[in-house]
Amino acid sequence: MTDPGTDLATPRSTPQASDLMERVVNLCKRRGFIFPSAEIYGGFRSTYDYGPLGVLMLRNVKDAWWRAMVQQRDDVVGLDAAILSSPRIWEASGHLANFTDPLVDCRSCHERWRADKIGDACPNCGSTDLTEPRAFNLMFKTYAGPLESDATVAYLRPETAQGMFVNFANVLQTTRKKPPFGIAQVGKSFRNEITPQNFVFRTREFEQMEMEYFVAPEQSGQWFEYWLHERFAWYRSLGIPEEKLRLRHHDPSELSHYSTATADVEYLFPWGWDELEGIANRTDYDLRAHAAASGERLEYFDQATGERYVPHVIEPAAGATRTMMAFLLAAYDEDEVGGERRSVLRLHPRLAPYQVAVLPLSKNDALVPLSRQVLQMVQQVAMCDFDVTQSIGRRYRRQDEVGTPLCVTVDFDSLEDHAVTVRDRDTTEQVRVAIDELSATVMARVLR
Ligand code: ATP
Questions:
Q1: Does the model's pTM come out above 0.90?
Q2: Do the two domains 24-93+140-328 and 354-446 of this chain adopt the same fold?
């Protein structure tokens, strides 16, 4: 064994909610998950850049969603629609008229707030002297082409969903799917949020993972229930503890302009329960609106029964960036190993930036080439880090801190027995595995 005895983990109390946020934000910056955007210029209005580890983890979150929503089903297909979009889409969908938040100004300190999030007093100075709320449209407006005129107005999409509705007929024709079936999309959306806040929880540029599931109108209730359960189970399957998740049904007064029923999957963030994902019954609102505005028929014709109808839509709409933050918060832990404190991200192996770290015990001339061979082999099945600096104990701590589930150490015995030590992040237990069997071991342990 490479690090005998001293490396066994013992539990320690998990940080309190108030510290947790700060520790996770610091970790994200220090280890290259998330940087404030344009930091060298003092940052830019709550925008963020995803660093070398953040880009891996965000991709893993999106892949885990795609795997569950598209790959492991035969009733959902994918789409990647344009971000830059025609005003006609947003006029028909109702976003130009209705996609607004109620904006209030504090007359005392002149801060601006979303009226529905603050009660009747300014969170900054406590004054109750607020202006009447006025509707503020959240869409980013720009111009396509060199002329800035009404004729060249374009919008950055505020949700990915409309791409699925305007391509409904294209997808139906090209895939020969019939209801119930879904169209899934992952990508950037933009909202000119009045108060971006809480790190990447609410930003103006963010990523969504949305699926529009088209069903016969009379089946919409049962499919709504089905997707509530499926989506709740997805977060559980990726390691979020049950006590930190809940489903909350919207009151009629909270419903969006297109929805007859909505429930949110909520996570217990350090500041309280807040939304990870909304599951909405959008009825036939969007297809009818686009059919009326475009003059195209957006309906399903069932050749077997001769029936023609406009499908109703159940939409599970999640945030990739917001969900990544919840996974980080849920995974952060501290314990003691060999009497020394460590911080550890107990991420599900599929979400961890690296699944495996390959670590030569020393920079020895014979160990490094063998370690590189091991690395190249494991890289075929998993994302790997390779680290030759510092003591092995230090390197384990660095991998624990970013959530790497397995460390593979190549030591001097490896030159003789063609085996390596595989160390588990959570238990810190070490087992000897033959190099020939390493890829299979890695696949069994991290691709579950
Ligand atoms: P909120 O009430 O928090 O503004 P919403 O109900 O308007 O959100 P939806 O339109 O249902 O959000 O969007 C679906 C998902 O997209 C949300 O559950 C969230 O995960 C993500 N999302 C929405 N707005 C943002 C944002 N500004 N920043 C990060 N993620 C977002």
A1: yes
A2: no
CA distance 103 to 38: 27
Could you tell me where the DSSP H helices lie in 204-272? 220-237
Helix (H) or strand (E) holding 91: helix 87-93
Where in the chain are the domains? 24-93+140-328, 100-137, 354-446
Minimal-distance CA residue to ligand 1 atom 23: 319
* pLDDT of res. 196: 93
Q: How far is the CA of 228 from the centre of ligand 1 (A)?
A: 17
Rounded CA separation 422/407 (Å): 6
Q: Domain 24-93+140-328: what homologous superfamily?
A: Bira Bifunctional Protein; Domain 2 (3.30.930.10)
- Span 54-95, pLDDT tens digits: 999 999 999 999 999 999 999 999 999 999 999 999 999 999
319 CA from centroid of ligand 1 (Å): 6
Q: What is the third-level CATH fold of 354-446? A: Rossmann fold (3.40.50)
Give the tens place of pLDDT for each residue, 371-401.
Answer: 999 999 999 999 999 999 999 999 999 999 9
CA of 254 to the centre of ligand 1 (A): 14
| Ligand 1-lining residues (CB < 6 angstroms) | 159, 191, 193, 202-203, 206, 208, 275-278, 317-319, 321-322
- Expressed in angstroms and rounded, the spacing between residue 55 Cα and the centre of ligand 1 is 20
- Cα distance between residue 380 and residue 394, in whole Å: 26
